[in-house]
Amino acid sequence: MNKKTVRDIDLKGKRVLVRVDFNVPLKDGKVGDDTRIRAALPTIQYLISNGAAVILCSHLGRPKGGPDPAFSMKPVADHLARLVTVPVHFSSEFVGTEAQAASSRLGQGEILLLENTRFHPGETRNDPELSKQLATMADVFVNDAFGSAHRAHASTEGVAHHLPAVAGFLLEKEIKYLGQAIADPARPFVAILGGAKISDKIGVIRNLLTKADHVLIGGGMANTFFKAKGLEVADSLVEDEALDTAKELLGSPKLHLPADLVLANAFDNAAESQTVDAGNVPTGWRILDIGPKTVQAFAGLLKGAGTVVWNGPMGVFEFPNFSKGTFGVAQAVAGSGAVSIIGGGDSVAAINQSGLSGKVTHISTGGGASLEMLEGLALPGVAALMDR
Ligand code: ADP
Ligand code: MG
Asked: Cys-Cys link to 236, which of 70, 183, 287, 328 (CB 3.0-4.6 A)?
């Protein structure tokens, strides 16, 4: 990676501001799932054992540009205090006199969690005044929030211009795997794209068609390709406004569409189902999954791959009767022996449900950010960090 990390900077006696992703689900005023908090601990512990005072900040939910107790970080501070052995302080402001005072008081080896970054309207506007004010509280900035790195906000991008700025371990790992897959993949490089809509991922398909050896298409997005080819899709989800783009992308010999499909006569797990070859979708039916021949064909291309990137389920895997395609492909990815990278909220949920998450190389924590990397775009929160 060409960016500096926490390993490349002197931390002793420094106040270190860390942008983390503590955007956790809250339940009855408590942290519902602490996966993201635990994921940040290696960076936090590294900073502490190297003599830093640690100031943490994150957004939580979508407060409407002002303080809202429903999105307070206080429950996160309480939870964090139980996971670490050092003192955890909380500032009920993100920036301001209280936050400033708390950060100056902060001792080496202690943690201060600031209130929700989005309680300040300047955060999402990337207000330079806010970035400067934030920077005055610290000597060093660490970005460890990959899921927010595609957004140029004051706490992700702006502040990095006012302090020596480096990556934390989580961010480093994401950039290492996703960046390597795009820049210098072990070949053959096979990309699997699915999910509901083609329009969310046109940039990704385009870029991967230039980088990968094969691009396998499944899920709802395949339907628009079928229609663009003049094949019948009946009641399937289709995006007519993407038909021209689909037609253009169909020209690539790297693009592989499903050969067979599992249909339903309603959008319901309990609907009647049948498996047909592509093009043979009868009136009143809709495509909800890829069929067994397709799983086999995709598995054939995945076998012996050097790199696999997967974003987007192959069907409506939330319905057990239409999940076989997604889980079949998960099996093939896990057994491929390739460096395998899974991104996207629903795809990650699917790999976790399949019980195969331990058999893939990297599961990305950032849906939008991972898509932007696969699209070949620079993430503002990463670009602003110091070069190695
Ligand atoms: P990710 O979060 O992994 O990026 P998306 O959000 O793009 O994935 O798409 C996931 C959604 O796509 C799932 O909710 C799934 O039910 C839906 N989906 C997949 N295939 C189809 C299909 N054939 N018809 C309708 N919806 C589909
Ligand atoms: Mg999704």
From this structure: 287
Which CATH number do you get for residue 56? 3.40.50.1260
Q: Which of 4, 74, 125, 197 is catalytic?
A: 197
> What's the whole-number mean pLDDT along residues 3-10?
98
Task: Give the Cα separation of 124 and 127 in Å (integer).
Answer: 8
- In whole angstroms, give the CA distance from residue 369 to residue 174: 10
Tell whether 278 is covered by a domain.
yes
φ, ψ of residue 229 to 5 degrees: the values are -85, -5
The percentage of residues in the chain with a pLDDT greater than 90, rounded to a whole number, is: 97
Q: Is 103 part of any domain?
A: yes
Q: Which residues surround ligand 2, an ion (CB under 5 A)?
A: 345-346
- Residue-level pLDDT at 366: 87
Residue 36 known to be catalytic: yes
**Closest C-alpha to ligand 1, atom 16:** 316
Torsion of Cα atoms, 77 then 80 then 84 then 85, to 10° = 30
| Same domain membership, residue 272 and residue 217 | yes
Among residues 172, 188, 211, 183, which one has the least CA distance to residue 308?
A: 188
149 and 187 housed in the same domain = no
| Residue 325 known to be catalytic | no
More confident residue, 366 or 309: 309
Contacts of 329 (CB under 8 A, 6+ apart): 192, 218, 290, 295, 298, 299, 302, 310, 314
> Which positions ≥6 away from 96 have C-beta within 8 Å?
none
Tell how far the Cα of 282 is from the centroid of ligand 1, in angstroms: 22
- Does ligand 1 have an atom closer than 6 angstroms to the CB of 220? yes
CB of 318 sitting under 6 A from ligand 1? yes
